[in-house]
């Protein structure tokens, strides 16, 4: 079997046909959810109450606001970093360098937005622009992905990702051909993964909270909880920004439409669905229930952070006192697999913590509507798929050692369930 036939054989997402469908369905789903969230019935599975015309979707002001936002985040990315980290070794034995200044960018953005609001910036008007902003971001994602595809045509073979080089243009456009597309030292994938979308998510939430205060006198407890929980999640991701350098998105996946649209559009506009829903469907939330939800969030974060930090510490320094006592399985690569502690409970304890947090920030929306739980449903599917992809990669990396690990840790995400 030739390498291209082999790569054709291992096509994901249903190959070219599946990917063509996803290219249409992803943006369509996002616009459906944006419309349903602001509609009275808020029916996740029903048709939106109306279909917006192009005059409602297209706004030069929204496009300008998007480019101002992207420009601001690029400028903050290029500021001197508290640390510069090296990525994992590439095929050509080199290592790329990445600025670790994401949390700094979040804080500086908050200061700038705060100054803007105090000077009269109408942040509360942003919710009205979500549709045209999402349209502008989707358009930008397609164009940016096309430019990345063309750029990759000139890239050396060593710079290409294993996945997005099937030879089928649609498939490669979606998966991404180049592994680490850069302009000088500016890394497009690393920048998009953690900056404009993730930080944008927090400020869309804040705008929705401000709009609720303007509409009803003060933000609801549910809106405060959703904002607080998701701010913690983004702040944590940016504080531990360096750990992204070992994720499959950075080390394995090409940078194509899936991650471009996922980072720039899906995260800010879909991950803020709970706050969007609450603005148009205020939900009563008593203090006892709020405290219970905070407890659920705390459990999720404890597992999420504990598991991620344990693995990342172990990978950086297996002799660190916090992980030195854990049981391990040696592998032929020289790396070891943790088989006790969080990673002895299930094979992806971090996913379990993340899912519990997703439940916690959906619960403040009550149980009368399915829409606020879309994220939990989508995220469960994403992590199940991601876990399967990671298993394949780990089986290839570690062979029998991974098989032994799976025997000793039989559950993937939820103990005694899955
Ligand atoms: N909110 C969202 O939309 C998303 C959130 N996430 C979150 O991002 C975080 C990172 O997830 P993800 O990128 O999937 O990667 P993971 O953090 O789960 O890392 C997987 C890698 O960890 C290493 N590993 C696995 N098992 C062991 C073990 N027993 N001992 C030592 N190393 C092990 C392997 O890499 P190696 O051995 O090569 O080091 C494996 O490839 C998670 O917390 C996840 O919940 C992820 C996707 C989307
Ligand atoms: C919608 C598409 C089919 C899939 C797009 C998936 C992306 C939205 C996610 C792929 C991996 C991600 C990670 C994060 C955010 C979502 C995306 C980009 C985090 C940055 C979230 C915070 C965590 O602490 C780290 C995550 C790394 C992976």
From TrEMBL:
TM ranges: 12-37, 57-79, 100-123, 129-150, 255-273, 285-304, 355-379
Pathway where this protein functions: Steroid biosynthesis; cholesterol biosynthesis
A single GO cellular-component term on record: nuclear inner membrane
Enzyme Commission code: 1.3.1.70
Tree of life domain: Eukaryota
Compartment annotation: Endomembrane system; Endoplasmic reticulum membrane; Microsome membrane
Membrane topology per record: Multi-pass membrane protein
PANTHER family linked to this entry: DELTA(14)-STEROL REDUCTASE, DELTA(14)-STEROL REDUCTASE TM7SF2
Similarity comment text for this entry: Belongs to the ERG4/ERG24 family.
Protein name: Delta(14)-sterol reductase TM7SF2
Gene source species: Phodopus roborovskii (Roborovski's desert hamster)
């Amino acid at each position: 079997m030739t390498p291209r036939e082999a790569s054709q054989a291992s096509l994901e997402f249903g190959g070219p046909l599946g990917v063509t469908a996803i290219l249409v369905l992803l943006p369509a789903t996002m616009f459906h959810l944006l419309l349903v969230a602001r509609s009275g019935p808020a029916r996740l599975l029903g048709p939106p109450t109306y279909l917006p015309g192009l005059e409602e979707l297209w706004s030069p002001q929204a496009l300008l606001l998007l480019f101002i936002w992207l420009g601001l985040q690029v400028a903050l990315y290029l500021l001197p970093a508290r640390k510069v980290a090296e990525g994992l070794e590439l095929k050509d034995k080199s290592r790329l360098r990445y600025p670790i200044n994401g949390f700094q960018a979040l804080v500086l953005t908050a200061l700038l937005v705060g100054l803007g609001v105090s000077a009269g910036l109408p942040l509360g008007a942003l919710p009205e622009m979500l549709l045209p902003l999402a349209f502008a971001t989707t358009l930008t994602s397609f164009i940016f992905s096309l430019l990345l595809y063309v750029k990759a045509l000139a890239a050396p073979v060593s710079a290409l990702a294993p996945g997005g080089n099937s030879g089928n243009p649609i498939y490669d456009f979606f998966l991404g051909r180049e592994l680490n597309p850069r302009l000088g030292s500016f890394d497009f994938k690393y920048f998009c993964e953690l900056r404009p979308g993730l930080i944008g998510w927090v400020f869309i939430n804040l705008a929705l909270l401000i709009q609720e205060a303007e509409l009803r006198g003060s933000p609801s407890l549910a809106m405060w909880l959703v904002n607080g929980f998701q701010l913690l999640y983004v702040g944590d991701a940016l504080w531990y920004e360096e750990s992204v350098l070992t994720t499959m998105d950075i080390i394995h996946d090409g940078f194509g439409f899936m991650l471009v649209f996922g980072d720039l559009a899906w995260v800010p506009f879909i991950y803020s669905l709970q706050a969007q829903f609450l603005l148009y469907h205020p939900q009563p939330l008593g203090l006892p229930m709020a405290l219970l939800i905070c407890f659920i969030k705390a459990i999720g974060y404890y597992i999420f952070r504990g598991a991620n930090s344990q693995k990342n510490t172990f990978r950086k320094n297996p002799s660190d006192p916090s992980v030195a006592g854990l049981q391990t399985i040696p592998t032929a690569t020289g790396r070891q697999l943790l088989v006790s502690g969080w990673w002895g409970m299930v094979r992806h304890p971090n996913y379990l913590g993340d899912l519990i947090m997703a439940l916690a920030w959906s619960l403040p929306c009550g149980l009368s509507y399915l829409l606020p739980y879309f994220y939990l449903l989508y995220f469960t599917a994403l992590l199940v798929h991601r876990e399967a992809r990671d298993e394949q990669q780990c089986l290839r990396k570690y062979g029998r050692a991974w098989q032994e690990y799976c025997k000793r840790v039989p559950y993937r995400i939820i103990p005694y369930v899955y």
